[in-house]
Every structure is written in structure tokens, then in C-alpha cells.
Amino acid sequence: MTPAQTEVPQRRGTPQDSAPTPVISVRKLWKVFGPKAEQVPDSEELCGLTRRELMDRTGCTAAVRDVNFEVSPGEVFVVMGLSGSGKSTLVRCLTRLIEPTSGEIVFEGEDIRDADAKRLRELRRRKFSMVFQHFGLLPHRKVVDNVSFGLEIRGMSKAERTKRALEVVELVGLSGYENSYPDQLSGGMQQRVGLARALAGDPDVLLFDEPFSALDPLIRRDMQNEVIRLHHEVGKTMVFITHDLSEALKLGDRILIMRDGKMVQCGTGDELVGAPADDYVREFVKDVPRGDVLTLRWIMRPAVDGDALDGPELGPDVVVREATRAVLAADKPVKVVENGKLLGIVGDEEILAVVAGQEGDA
Amino acid sequence: MTVAVEKPEPAQQVADAAPELKSSRRKVTRPMMVGAILVVWLVLFAVLRGKQTLTLAAADLTGLHRWFNDLNDSVGANRNSNPLFLYFFNEIRLVIDNLVTFVQDLISQPSGDRPLPQIGWLGVVGIAGFVSWAVGNWRVALLAMAGFAFFGLQGLWQESMDTLALTLSAVLVALVFAIPLGVWAGLSDRFNRIITPFLDFMQTMPTFVYLAPLTLIFLIGPASAVIATVIYAAPPAIRITAHGIRSVPETTVEAADSMGSTRWQSLLKVLLPMAKRTVVMGVNQTIMAALAMVTIAALIDAPGLGKTVMQALQSLDVGTAFNAGLAIVIMAIVLDRVTTASSTRAEEARNATGRFLKWRRPLLGSGAVGVVVLIYLSHTYLWAAQFPGDGTTGSHIASAADSVTTWVQDNLSGVTNAFRNAITNGLLNPFQSLLTDSPWWLVGAVLVGIAGVLGGWKVSVTTAVCVGLLVGTGMWSDAMTTLASTIVATALVMVFGIAFGVWMGRSMMVDRLLRPTLDAAQVMPPFVYLVPFLALFGPSRFTAIVAAVVYAVPVAIKITADGIRDVPETTVEAATAAGCNTWQIITKVQLPMARSALTLATNQGLIYVLSMVVVGGLVGAGALGYDVVAGFSQGELFGKGLAAGLAIVLLGVMFDRITQAAARRTSA
Fold first, then answer.
1. What is the pTM of this model?
2. Do residues B400 and B478 both lie within one domain?
3. Among residues A23, A97, B269, B593, which is most buried (max CB within 10 A)?
4. Cβ of A132 and B256 within 8 Å?
């Protein structure tokens, strides 16, 4: 199974076309747990085995297998998979909370795997920060002291770090709770503390490990919107781990789907829905409301002779749902035009195929 | 297949095969086999009674005992020339002695050219109150001050302070080792694996037996007492500290790592603060264990309340023993309440309003100044140094206890004697004669057989080794007498344990009522249990058994109750829906499902009962307990006492192994 790096359609605002130098690039990353784990990635024979076979043969578990991806500056990069797919291990490998078995993790030109303990601490203190599923707050410290913990670790003075912490507490909407203790807050608010703690150090990259999985659905939606808002305000690069496809589609500029430690597909949301790499992904995205994700680019057909070409114009990155009314209202097919160039046309037929197909699936 | 995978298989098969073999006829087999062994024993007993019983008269010694005596003598002779002693053991003793003397000079013993300690009663009461307030709250501070003042009123000021001095010294030394070791065991899996068996062994070992070997090395006196106490009191702190460190959620530690904290920063800012409450609970356990051991260490001439109790017990002076026992109980309550309050203080302070917190620091400061003034007064003026009055309250208590005892003996002796005789003649004597009058090899074979049936062949091998060593100690007959009492006591413990445990496990209300009492009872030093029963039943084996039962019952009740409560609600509901009545639910659902808890309760009950054997020796239990006690007081019996201590350990190891293996089997 080769991971499909679908390149077909370009989406608006995708950082790929604006900033070519990635912040993080991960190459051939392996994490194998078990005895003599380091032999596995080097042996071609062992690499070819499935997880189960590898377990039986060597007693090793391959949590992350030959994963490659790049994250661009300012991008929200989502890693999605079911439990046991290795996604949490993957994100921990990025800052070596779990030591990778082999491969490269290049951050701003520096291979993190070569960093010594001191440099690694420095990277963790200044460049990365992480938000955890179960928050990981310190129950014996007030909110403000939890938020300033990372700064304290760096050796910042008390007055300075409290000032900074109070700013961030306000940023995440926790003003008034500075002096509460974590166990006096609801789950959603505790995670806001976690978020504030991660933001306090002003890192380059924020890592999220299923941050909202432990929250109930309404709170989860609030927090997702919060992340989107913060992303707009502070513009950090984010790597976001989730098992929830709708969360991935909502937040992610690009999504990496993992299964059994391997990457299955990496691409934008509409690529996953429009061109699933295999049956696994297809099954995954089956229930996604296609009209919400697919753009006109995915459903347009080339104009042939006889098509009326004087209908209204729309861009190729307009989502189908938004275009439905316009297309159905027009009595002629809609032209999909990018930079003055006619890419194709969309008629009632194409729109209805998406909407009807979607209903059929449901 | 690689070797790594193949290896566990044979073991797996053995483990599988054993239950499978029995599974076809398992329901009948195990009890029937035990029954068959007992029947064979009875038959052979009738035939072989009185032969090869390995009886040893009270003053007789075996070669081993003489060898121990010689060893003792040669250690005594070479104490100041052997380099191991000169540079190691004697140094330790010196350091400990200096520490104890220092604390005693401060609070209990005449110091230098002063006829009184440096700090008099007023200062000590002030310090007790202030410290309790600083680490706990004002309620426990009042309790501490009242408790300490009461020691003075009882006329036991100096004895109490001696006990306190020894306890504090031992706790200090224990914690200096235990907390770092506990943190290490919490951080390192490997160190945890290494230290766990040692801690297990130290905790299963009947409490008071390491006094003898310690006196061999460190002489009789406070140093040995403190060292024994340290050995006894450190394991719970190590264990609980390690547990506290381990129970810090992994995410929290990971979060700290992800922010780039060093190992030190993680330890100081995350692990220790989050484990603090648990560590303080460990300190509490250590203090309580230390107090218990310090009172028992009266056997090796440790000064303090224990000595008063022991001397009174030996002269059957119930009043004095009761008075001093009461002081021990009060000290236990004070120490327990103060440390418990300090473990919950952080949380209470968090919920308290800020207004009060602001005043706390100035108040503490002025309190400290006040205490310094009190210490100065008690150092300078006689009235503040020496507790006023002559302890009339104490003599009132003693005479009241005496008159109650007399009244009980005059009026209730019919009931108590009948009860005592019924148990003694109906249960204890026949069982004891069965054990002591059978040939040793027959009893040994029965033990090995039962161990095999209940716990598997590995345990029967252990049992065989223990039986062999028991014979080797030369204390076989005494060991059998002790064994008879132990088993009778354990049976009684289980009767009460199950009755109250089921009651507690089924009713939340009973649980709420009983649990604090049981917790309090577990905190008491075992010594004090002897006193009321000595009053009721006079000196006899039976008194020791009852004291042991009372000592061991709380833990058995608690384990049983937890086991009953752990039976899933739905199972009980299903049984109720099927129309079971209460009795059927208890006997057919709850007790069978709590089987492994019951076995564990038996295990703990046995260990607790065994640890009372030596204490029971003080009130006429005879046998091993008496041998140990006599070994401390009479030089020529030292070796025999040491061998008796060894025999108690062997009994303990044997029964611990059997019951643990049985528990594993029933839970599997």
C-alpha cells in the first residue's frame, strides 16, 4: 500500500503554494516497541510484514511505520486515525517524548533526533508546546500558576511570568478564573488552561494530542471554534491529532490518515472525500456530507459543444453546498472559472448527483 | 518460532494443567482431600500418640541454642576488637545513641548537671500545640496539648517523654532513609523490583522477632530499640512514597517533559507536590508503627511507657498497666490525628477563604514567639519544668481500673471463666495435644500435604523446608503449642471477620459506624490490648489468644467487607431477581465471589496473630512467646530465645506462603 499524495486539485489558501519551506519535515519515521526494535526498520523483510505478523515473529509492535510528511508554516496539519493507529505515538515522536526508532524529524533545518538532552529541552521550552487529551494540569497550582509553569521551567522571574500568564488567560477566555484550582473548573475550562499553558511560551509549533476527545459534544464544538479563532489570531503552526473525522475536516488544512502505524493518505479534506486512496479511506469518509466538503472543482465536467456558455460564473473552490442554490436557480449551467480561464461547467445534474448520492449513503 | 516465544509455554502448560486436572472433579476434591489428610492424621495420632514428639523441657538446651549462646558470648568478648564491630556496628550504635540521648536530654531525661531535661513540660506542651497547629489545624492542636497535659496528670510525664523521644528519633532516622528510597522506587522500575521482596519480607515477618538478633549486635538498650523500630517503621513509608510517586498521572509528567523540564524540575515541581498527601500518609504509618515498636522494645530495656506496662503486666498489676496503657492510647491518638490533619491541610486551605489565609502567617509568627517564651520559662523555672502535682489522676485511674477488675473478677468470673474454660478445654486443649503429642514427622507430613492441596507443589516444598528448619531450631514442641493457639485464634478472627465483614459490606450505615473504630483499633500499639483481657481472664494462654484476636480482627473485617462490597451490584441484583433470600445471597453469591478476599483476610489475620505471640508471652501464653521473652532476661536462655524467634519467623513464612498461594488459586 503506497500512501497516495494526491496532488490533483489546488485549494485556495493552501499554504503549499505560498510557502515552500516546511517547518517540520518528517522522513521515514519509525517507532517500534519491543526487543531489538532498532533492527526492524532496517530489515526489508520485516518492514513488509503486517503488524500482527511482526508481533508473532519478533515480539515487537510497530506503532509508527515509515511515515513521511511536511508541515508548512501557519498550517493546521491534522493526523487522523482510530485508536491504535499510532497517531499519538507519532506526535510524541516529534519532540521525542517517545524516542523514535529511526528516521528524520527536521525542524527549521535541524534534525531533532540529533539534539542532545540540553538542546532538546531548549526546543521543548521555546519552540514546541503540547496540549494533552487528559489536560495534565497540576492540581496543586492555581490556574495562573499552571499557565506560567512552562515559563517557570525556563527560569523566568515570577513577576514577568505572571504578567504573561494573565495575558494568555485572557486570550483563551478564562479571565476571572486566574486564582481557581483546576479541579474547580469544568472539563472544557480545564482544557482552556491546557491551551493557555501551551500558548504562554509563545512556541512556533503547537501540538494537540486529541485535546477535545474527553469533552462532551457541545463543549467540543466550542473548543474547536476556539482553536480556529486562536489560529486566526496568533497564526501558529499546529499539528492536531484526532480520531474524529468531522473535527479533522473542520480544523485541518491538510489531513494525514493513519492505519496500523502506516500513512494511508495525506491531503486536503476535499481530496480525501473526492479521491479516497483506498477502501479504508472510502469507508471512513462515507458518511461525510459530501456537499459540505467537495468543491465545484470535483464535480465539474468539461464543457462540450452544445453547452450553453453564457451562464453565471463561480470559482472552482466554492463548496458544493454553497453553490447549490445558484446552480439550481440558473437555467443554464454554471461556468467554473479560475483566473479568467474556463475549467469546466456544473449543471443541475452534477449538483443533484452529489446531493442525492449523499442522501443515498446516509 | 524463536526461543523468546517458546520459553513461557512450558510454564503456561503446567499452570494450565493443574486446574484442568482438577476441573473434572474439582467441587468435591479439595475439601475432601484435606478431610482425608485430617482423618489419616487422627487415626495415626491414636496409634502413635506421645512418640517422637521432640519435647524440650523449659531449662533444656540443644546444641544450636548453646551455639547461639557461644556466639553471643564471643560477640560480647570481641565487640571492641573485631573490625566489623569497631568500625561499623559500634559506629552506628554510637550515632543512634547520641541522637537518642540528645532528644532525651531535651525533653525527658536529666541533662548534664541539671536535674531536669532542658525543656520542661510547659515548653513541650507549647511545642506540641504549635507544631500541631502549624502542620494541621487548631482542633488537633488543642487535642495535642490536652493529651500531653494528661500525661503529666497521670504521673507519667517522664515515661511518656521517653517514649516520645525514642519514637521521634526512630521516625527521623526511618524517614531519612525511607523517603529517598521511596522516591527512587517510585521513579525506577528496576529498583522497585529489587526492593519489593525485601519490603514484603520485612512486613510479613512477625513484628517482634528481630529484637533478638539486633541485641546480639547492638546490645540491649535504646540504640537497639531505635534500630528495631527503624527497621519496622521504614517499609510502609518506602512503599507509600513509591506508590504516591507512581500514582501521579502519566500525562502530567509528560506535560512537564513536553515543556522541557529537567528531571529535577519534574521531581520537585510535579512529582513531589502531587505525591505530597500520600507521602504524609506514609509518614503517619511510620509514626504509628514506630510507636507500636517502641513500646514493645521495652522487652530489650527501652525506657518509656512500654516498660511501665510490661513491668506491671509481669507483676499482674492491672491498675498501673491500665494507666500506662491509656497513656499509650492517648499518644497514639494524638500522633495519628495530627499527622492525618496535616495530610488534609493543603486541601482544606485551598477551600478556605482568602481572608483567613492572610492572617495565617502573622499568627504563626506570633505563635512561634509564644512557644519560645514557654520554652524559656520551662528551661528556667521549676514550676514550668517539672509537672506540678504528683500524678494523683494517674493513681485514681489505676485504682479505678483495679476496682473494676476486682468487681469483674468477683461478679463475672463465673461467666468469664466458663467462657475461657469452654474455649480452652473444648477447642484449644484437644487441638494442642493433637499437635504436640503427634510424632513430629506426622505433623510435618500433614502440613506438607495440606499445603500441597491448598497451594500447589511449590508451596508444599517451601512448607517441607520450613518444617525441617523448625525441627532444626529444637523448638518443635513449643512451636506446636504456639501453632495450636495461633490456629485457634485465627479461626476466631475469621469467625468475627466474616460476621462483621459481611454486615459491613452489605450495609453502608454499619460501614460508616464501624470503620472509624476499626481504623482506630489498628493504630493502637498491640501492647495495650493485653491489659483489659488480663483483667478479665487472668494470665493464661486464653488471654493471649483473645488479645491476639482483638488485635487481628479489624484488618480481617475490613478486607472481608471490601471483598463483599466488590461483588458487582448486577450479580446481587440478578440473584435477588431470581428470588434468593438474604441468607442465600450471602452464602451463594457474595461469600463465594469474595473468596479471594476471605483468603487474604485469613492471611493477614494469621500474620497479625503471629505477631502477637511474643507479646502474649508476657501474660502466660507460654511456648515460643515465653521463650523469646525469657531469652531477653536470662543470659543462659539467650540462644533458646533466638531459636524461638526463628521458629516464629518460620511459622510465619510457612503460613504466609500457604495462604497466599491459596488466595492466588481461588482468585484465578
1. 0.78
2. no
3. A23
4. no
